[in-house]
């Protein structure tokens, strides 16, 4: 199969492209960074260098593809995250129709079933709806849960304050996912027979409370007393603003954790739970410890 992978060499796209190449597929990886071309080619894939804001480039790259994996990469310079997702989603839809692509696997998010109250996840909801409007498309929305790798963002808090936390209760049980398990699910979806229509697939690796996460990460980094601290929404917002996040981005993050804490984020996931993936919290804790120690040595 000829398969197009967006997301350059990110935490999902790199293992996805690697596995697809190993299975014998002809893989093209889209990246906006020319310096990524040698690394992409080293995987055995073809590099297509260009911008997701260029629908004609996307259409030319998609031409002749049997399947396309689409994702919207983070863009922290965007003042309106939802508008950014909508823009890229429309570019994908235009390119898919121009190129006549019949099979798409879209990286979405849990909580994308809601059209309000989930902050930064609202963009994923919008992209789902944009792609679902493409006629005749065999479309899978991959909805991963909360990324384990998000906890890398708490390294500074752990070192500076001695704890980690957000506006979410410590005893709240969170569905967590590792990028490798998302890549494995995407590989399955891209390569299996598909018929026109829209399906949703949740992806999760483990389910643990935030208190359990703090305990596991603390044990791995030699801080067995590490604990999770629940903030109010306002405390969370103030902390994010103090750390330099734009007000709109801070509001998006606060809303995500608030919807997690209320159960709104997970309400559809709870009705359609998948089999859990291979990577567990304790596996990730080892990766976290290595990154934590590496950061400490800088």
TrEMBL record:
Residues 7-144 form the NAD(P)-binding domain. Pfam families: NAD_binding_10. Gene3D superfamilies: NAD(P)-binding Rossmann-like Domain (3.40.50.720), UDP-galactose 4-epimerase, domain 1 (3.90.25.10). InterPro entries: Ergot_Alk_Oxidoreductase, NAD(P)-bd_dom, NAD(P)-bd_dom_sf. This is NmrA family NAD(P)-binding protein.
């Amino acid at each position: 199969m000829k398969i197009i992978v967006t997301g350059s060499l990110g935490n999902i796209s790199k293992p996805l492209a690697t596995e697809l190449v190993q299975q014998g597929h002809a893989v093209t990886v889209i990246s906006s960074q020319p310096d990524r071309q040698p690394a992409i080619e080293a995987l055995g894939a073809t590099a297509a260098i260009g911008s997701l804001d260029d629908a004609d480039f996307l259409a030319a790259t998609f031409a002749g593809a049997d399947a396309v994996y689409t994702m919207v990469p983070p863009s922290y310079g965007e003042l309106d995250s939802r508008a950014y997702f909508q823009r890229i989603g429309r570019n994908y839809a235009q390119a898919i129709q121009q190129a006549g692509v019949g099979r798409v696997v879209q990286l979405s998010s849990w909580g994308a079933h809601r059209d309000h109250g989930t902050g930064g996840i609202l963009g994923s909801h919008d992209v789902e709806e944009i792609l679902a409007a493409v006629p005749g498309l065999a479309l899978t929305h991959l909805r991963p849960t909360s990324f384990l790798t998000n906890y890398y963002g708490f390294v500074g808090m752990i070192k500076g304050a001695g704890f980690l936390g957000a506006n979410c209760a410590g005893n709240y049980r969170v569905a967590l996912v590792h990028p490798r398990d998302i890549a494995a699910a995407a590989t399955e979806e891209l390569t299996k027979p598909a018929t026109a229509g829209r399906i949703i697939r949740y992806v999760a690796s483990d389910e643990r409370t935030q208190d359990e996460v703090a305990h596991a990460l603390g044990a791995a980094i030699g801080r067995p007393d590490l604990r999770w601290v629940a903030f109010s929404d306002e405390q969370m917002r103030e902390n994010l603003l103090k750390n330099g996040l734009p007000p709109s981005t801070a509001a998006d993050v606060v809303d995500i954790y608030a919807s997690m804490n209320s159960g709104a984020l997970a309400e559809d996931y709870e009705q359609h739970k998948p089999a859990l993936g291979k990577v567990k919290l304790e596996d990730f804790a080892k990766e976290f410890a290595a990154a934590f120690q590496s950061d400490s040595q800088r």
